[in-house]
Design a protein that fits this description.
Blueprint: H1 3-13, H2 31-42, H3 46-50, H4 61-73, E1 91-95, E2 98-103, H5 114-128, E3 135-139, E4 145-146, E5 149-150, E6 156-161, H6 170-173, H7 179-198, E7 211-215, E8 221-225, H8 259-271, H9 274-282, H10 291-304, H11 308-311
Antiparallel strand pairs: 1-2, 2-6, 3-6, 4-5, 7-8
Helix pairs in contact: 1-2, 7-8, 9-10
Length: about 325
């Protein structure tokens, strides 16, 4: 496959921001964006996109997400239940048999960055090949009515879907893990630990409501994390350092992490191109992430990469 075809395939496969409330096609993209994807294809870490080292999600997950966004923007979307709890809140949805959430349901100032945080972390994880559920932004949702009832979503909302076929919480699988399951989950959870430390996520250590797992009889297993509202600029105010989260501890599923896998994940984060990081954050609409906050986050994330080994107690680790 030549670079242009591969770049188009990469673009079509990924969950990308839709600032105008519709799903853009490859043909609609400016040449600068197309060239950025060609560079990704040629880059050393392109395998993380195309092979999905830690991601074994069903093939129709992204298509479902895009279809969901189209329906939401067309005011044909149906909320399937009452508002769910949590700081930012969400509404459950279902498309083609797959459960998902649209958020934030709380539109106060404290949740202004929710959609941006979810989208940025999902896309960084996508770039790195780490198992975070895809997320998509949609515009024009404010004061729309779903099933005849007004739902107070913000101007820019985020949709995230459960991407596993038979998802279970950690409590539902932890007692039944075989050595093969543990070996399969170790690199995935190690990558997520490194990612969460990098983006200052403080809602997965340990909140079992924000992670799902699937284990199979053949010993394969898959983890997926979601809900990154409490990350990035939620409490972190660059250029100041984020609060100390005690990343050296290993609780819940993190007990399966291994230093060698964490180091490998940190190396991937360290090697992520700065231009790609800039692109991921700078394309977020300014009404859900002010441009000055985005610029400060870019600089802070570049610097924080240098601290991950120390924060995760990996200095001199085998």
């Amino acid at each position: 496959m030549d670079d242009d075809r591969a770049a188009k395939a990469l673009f079509d496969a990924g969950p990308f921001v839709h600032p105008q409330g519709h799903v853009p096609s490859w043909e609609m993209q400016p040449e600068a964006i197309k060239e950025a994807f060609r560079r990704m294809v040629r880059s050393a870490h392109a395998q993380a996109f195309t092979m999905g080292k830690f991601r074994n999600f069903p093939e129709n997950s992204i298509d479902t997400l895009k279809r969901c966004t189209e329906l939401l923007c067309a005011e044909e979307f149906e909320i399937t239940g009452d508002r769910r709890g949590g700081a930012s809140g969400s509404y459950p949805v279902k498309v083609e048999g797959r459960t998902g959430w649209v958020k934030p349901a709380n539109t106060d100032a404290a949740n202004a960055g929710t959609a941006a945080h979810e989208k940025i972390v999902a896309d960084l994880a996508y770039a790195l090949g780490f198992p975070v559920a895809p997320a998509m932004l949609t515009r024009g949702t404010k004061d729309k009515k779903f099933s005849g009832n007004p739902v107070p979503l913000p101007t820019v909302a985020v949709i995230s879907f459960d991407v596993l076929s038979q998802p279970k919480a950690w409590a539902g699988i932890s007692a039944n893990l075989t050595d093969k399951h543990k070996a399969a989950l170790a690199p995935q959870l190690s990558a997520l630990l490194a990612l969460n430390c990098w983006v200052d996520d403080h809602d997965h250590a340990w909140n079992e409501g924000n992670a799902l797992f699937e284990i199979n009889d053949d010993g394969t297993a898959q983890a997926v994390f979601f809900d990154y509202a409490w990350s990035l600029s939620h409490q972190w105010k660059p250029p100041a350092d984020p609060p100390d989260r005690g990343w050296k501890g290993r609780n819940g599923p993190y007990t399966l992490t291994e230093n060698a896998h964490i180091i490998a994940a940190v190396e991937q984060i360290e090697q992520l191109a700065v231009k790609e990081l800039e692109y991921t954050i700078s394309r977020i609409p300014p009404d859900c992430l002010p441009a000055d906050v985005g610029k400060a986050l870019i600089a802070a994330l570049v610097e924080r990469r240098k601290m991950l080994r120390s924060l995760l107690n990996l200095t001199g680790a085998p």
